[in-house]
Write a structure and sequence with these properties.
six-stranded antiparallel beta sheet; disordered N terminus; 29% strand; DUF3515; single chain; DUF3515 family protein; two-stranded antiparallel sheet; mainly beta
């Protein structure tokens, strides 16, 4: 099953040809793609606060913090003192955590926003995006009170800050693409 984010083309996002899975280049086999849940939230469910990741105090996260925009989805950055590696915009907040724990191979939806890969998960309270193939990893939570078709716009706004992070060997692949092997 493929999860489609409506209006993705108007955000400057390159949609996948087919559903993508995130796997490291050295992985020789691909597991069957499992659909991730879709749906919408009803009522106001609080978005869980992001916590600083294990690499939040790294030089790469410090540099990323200096590149963060003042606005994300037209929401101003919150002026309150934020923990190391955390930035927020608006209320309810769009949150970013640098130095997050990266994900391993997964069959969760992987989307590409201007050549930055993000693993996508949805819950009743938030749309959660985690970079795939970037070191350190960056996690972004967009509250589900924001229109679903607009949520990836936050990633477009954050792309210039995230893109300079070091890339790793991990890439997202279409389930029909041949996966490079290490041997």
């Amino acid at each position: 099953m493929r999860l489609v984010l409506p209006d993705i083309a108007r955000l400057g996002v390159r949609p996948p040809r087919r559903a993508l899975i995130a796997v490291p280049v050295t992985l020789g086999t691909i597991v069957a793609l499992a659909g991730c849940g879709s749906g919408s939230s009803s009522g106001d469910t609080a978005v869980p606060a992001l916590t600083s990741g294990p690499d939040a105090s790294s030089a790469a996260c410090t540099d990323l913090a200096d590149r963060l925009p003042e606005k994300v989805l037209s929401r101003a950055r919150n002026p309150a003192q934020e923990p190391t590696g955390i930035a927020t915009w608006g209320d309810p907040a769009i949150s970013l955590s640098c130095g997050a724990t990266p994900t391993g191979p997964t069959t969760d939806e992987c989307i590409d926003i201007n050549d930055v890969a993000w693993v996508f998960r949805e819950s009743a309270s938030a749309y959660t995006f985690l970079t795939y193939g970037r070191d350190p990893a960056v996690q972004v939570q967009v509250p589900s009170s924001i229109e679903r078709s607009t949520a990836t716009g936050a990633l477009v706004d954050l792309e210039e800050a995230v893109r300079p992070l070091e890339t790793t060997e991990r890439r997202c692949y279409d389930v029909t693409d041949p996966v490079p092997s290490s041997g």
